[in-house]
Design brief:
The complex is a heterodimer of chains A (117) and B (109). Chain A is mainly β. In chain A, 0% of the residues lie in helices and 51% in strands. Chain A is built from no helices and eleven strands. In chain A, the strands form two sheets. In chain A, strands 2, 4, 5, 6, 9, 10 and 11 form a seven-stranded mixed beta sheet that branches. Classes of the chains: A mainly beta (117), B mainly beta (109). Chains A and B meet through strand 10 of A and strand 5 of B.
Chain lengths: 117, 109
């Protein structure tokens, strides 16, 4: 199956700093990538849909200026959490779809656990 | 509004069979997915149903009834490693995935 790599897996940072998380599709071109966050014992919450070469589409309630998404190439999307605060501590997961939007399967990165002190 | 319902937690015995149900109400339907998620890890794909009926894949099977807005995931010959959360997700008319809260499956020896 297709491989999506996410880095870093774990990150601890001080409040007020910015953290960048990378999501790479290793063996396929991903025109669309998705960013989720997941709080403990809760389901995945879609934050934004990232389209290569264009601005990301953010879900309602997600701050665009706080969660910067860049999808500069067909194999790389980045999520930058700016001025991180303890409430931003969460599990962030990216996923990518390999083919047309109506065929379904999403491949997920390993996830990045962010802890803001 | 859009809604996905699945039980919060289920317990089953090693070697047994368990059925995890999922009911949904969404704006349109473009397929239903089941994902497995072990604690602290990303979800992994299990199945995709877009037509009514049963899809079998080894020990796991998934069933869909679009008229009833209902699906189930059937796990046979349960193993301890099957202890995980199972997420039901529906793709709506805008091709957005609507996620259920997940069912935590506990397997006992």
């Amino acid at each position: 199956g297709a491989v999506v790599s996410q880095h870093p897996s774990w990150v601890i940072c001080k409040s007020g700093t910015s953290v960048k998380i990378e999501c790479r599709s290793l063996d396929f071109q991903a025109t669309t990538m998705f960013w989720y966050r997941q709080f403990p014992k809760q389901s995945l919450m879609l934050m934004a849909t990232s389209n290569e070469g264009s601005k990301a589409t953010y879900e309602q309630g997600v701050e665009k200026d706080k969660f910067l998404i860049n999808h500069a190439s067909l194999t790389l999307s980045t999520l930058t959490v700016t001025s991180a605060h303890p409430e931003d501590s969460s599990f962030y997961i990216c996923s990518a779809r390999t083919s047309g939007r109506d065929t379904g399967e999403l491949f997920f990165g390993e996830g990045s656990r962010l802890t803001v002190l | 509004g859009q809604n996905i319902d699945q039980p919060t937690e289920m317990t089953a015995t090693e070697g047994a069979i368990v059925q995890i149900n999922c009911t949904y109400q969404t704006s349109g339907f473009n397929g239903l997915f089941w994902y497995q998620q072990h604690a602290g890890e990303a979800p992994t794909f299990l199945s995709y149903n877009v037509l009514d009926g049963l899809e079998e894949k080894g020990r796991f099977s998934s069933f869909l009834s679009r008229s009833k807005g209902y699906s189930y995931l059937l796990l046979k010959e349960l193993q301890m490693k099957d202890s995980a959360s199972y997420l039901c997700a529906v793709m709506d008319s805008n091709y957005q995935l609507i996620w259920g809260a997940g069912t935590k499956l506990i397997i006992k020896p």
